[in-house]
Amino acid sequence: MASEAGDPMRLLTRASVIAAGRRSRWVVIAVWLALAMLALPLQAELSERAADESETFLVRGSESAAVKRIVDERFRRGSETAAVIAYFREGGITADDGRRADTDALALCGSGAIPNLTMVATPYQRACGETDPLDMSSGGSLLTSPDDTVILSTVLMTDDSTPDIEQAVAAIREVVPPATGDESGLRAFVTGRAGFEADRQAALGGINETLLAITVAVLLLLLLVTYRSPLVALVPLAVVALAYLVTSGLAYGLVAAGLTDISGQTTSILVVLMFGAGTDYCLLMVARFRDELRRTRDVEEAMVAAAQRTAPAILSAGAIVVGTMMVLALADFNATREMGPILALGVAIMVCAGLTLLPAVLTALGRRAFWPAVPRLEPESAPAVTFWGRVAGLVHARPGVIAAAVTAVLAAGALAGMGGRPALDFAESFREAPDSVRGQQVIRDHFIPGRAAPLRIVVADEVGGKVQSALTEGTHTPVADMHAVARSAGADGLLIFDADLRMDPFSEQSTDAVPVLREVAERAAGGQTVLIGGTVAENYDSRQALGRDTRLIVPVSLALILVVLAVLLRAVVMPLYVIATVILSFGFALGVSSLIFTHLLGQPASDPNLPIYAFIFLVALGVDYNVFLLSRITERRRQHETRRAVTEALERTGGVITSAGLVLAATFATLMVLPMEALFQIGFVVTLGLLADTFLVRALLVPALAMMLDERNWWPFKQTATPG
């Protein structure tokens, strides 16, 4: 197969052969160890960079991102990040409660524990901070609920970096009464934008370490079951671990150079993707190496044969994943765009490790790697009937029936999700509601609901009054209250308004109201500057961007995968139906998951990122592992006609490919132990899709279609088998 793949394929296959050499193997191992040691200190630096997600969930070029930029760059006041303390007593706030709020505010002012603190204000006093005639945050009417059961204190900081926000919120929670209540029954919740961000980071705290520990444990168990050898089970994990360290170092270099950004979400998925896909790439070569050791006594000869037969498949599979991940760089949504280059880098490094480090380690260990189940030299004989031999025989006998049955099952599952699901709001994004969510609910129940996350409006000073009137007057508008909070320090004549909505600011209803509000504001401004941002507007812009990104990324990804498969297989028909089957399994996973989430798990809402992330991972990885089967079909096709080539390929690779699918599914399933609903949903859908792809698509549907189409698989190129 290497001779058909072109010069780059032969070159990289040759690299695997060289890496297995008697002397070169030790050089290769030493180089990878040295690179990993150099990168190890950068792991902590990368995690620190990933912890700052202040820009992660914004949209490139959006109106809400423009508001944040203008406020940060041009306003002395208004650019602060707010932590809101909600003091709550069921029977009504007392005079002692008010004094407690003032005492807490003074303590926070003098503690020095809050980075870049600019103001602390209660309904009764400004404990610290400059007086601003436009600032209404100290007004008791805005900070006391109509039923007198809640009072709000506001803590403002000029820094919105995630680590500083976490430090500030932790300091506030040390001072104020606990959310469970003090001895008098007064409860305090720290919420607002700072509270939301701190609780999100707390939920993700230690996520990579947790994922890594669970992933390694799951993979080690599966590898021990597969090979019944502790050493060969550890080898793929060690290879992937070194590749992961090297990737972390290079990723930090890219981030430090300003070439890309990184978030905690990206680093979490990087762990899962590298350990899942990387272990599978290693499995393919380990399995072939074991087979070759049964044919020859010479370990180097066995590795050369294994590398020549598996390296092209590993390289092609990796190229599909790398290319698909790079397509994510086209996205406007920052979280999606920044993920692409980092994940592509991780897979590329993993492929390099699989083609160099793995052959070197396996050759150095030799047959000892498989102890106690050491492969012994076996004479050529007719293979015994195996489970996968029986499956291949069944597919060979009834390809039409099997193709129809599997297609019907997958299509029925896909149709189950046609109704769609609403988007998760902030409260639903945690599997257990933290302090900030409960505080937001208290504010929603006792204040104007939008007080928890107001719209932020930047408007030209001369039309500020007109815009305020247009957005607040009449029953048609969802804005309940709007007040100016800052004026720009320069001569540009801009005002910042905060606008509170009548409905829950994290609901889909509020998100849907944003384009109408922007239209009303633009009409009232009469061509003057007016921009609407804030959390609600950011949610709307993100939803719009995700739709645009999906419409762009999906066709580009599919076209890229089609080209790679067509080059690899020297055909057009087979790549087309392989892609179609993987898309069908993606639809099945999304549809069946929708039913399970809604009717069994009681979670009818969906993370807006779910469809595009599930598509990218399922289609890229689904096609990726089909490459392992297809490469063996093309290998056998040189000796036999197509139907026999498919039968033999399925019989000989069914076990290792199914093991690879189980390994990858188990790896993505580790996301389901995390406390964030979005990651749980991604883990569930991708795991279900990978299982469907492993046991239905790769094991049954693709072989059945290949047998039905027979020689037409290779259109438009004529491929003549050499009888064997």
From TrEMBL:
The chain crosses the membrane at residues 210-227, 234-255, 267-289, 310-330, 342-366, 400-420, 552-569, 576-600, 612-633, 654-674, 680-709. It is a multi-pass membrane protein. This is MMPL family transporter. It comes from Microbispora bryophytorum subsp. camponoti. It comes from the Bacteria. Residues 232-364, 579-707 form the SSD domain. It holds the Pfam family MMPL. It is found in: Cell membrane. SUPFAM superfamilies: Multidrug efflux transporter AcrB transmembrane domain (SSF82866).
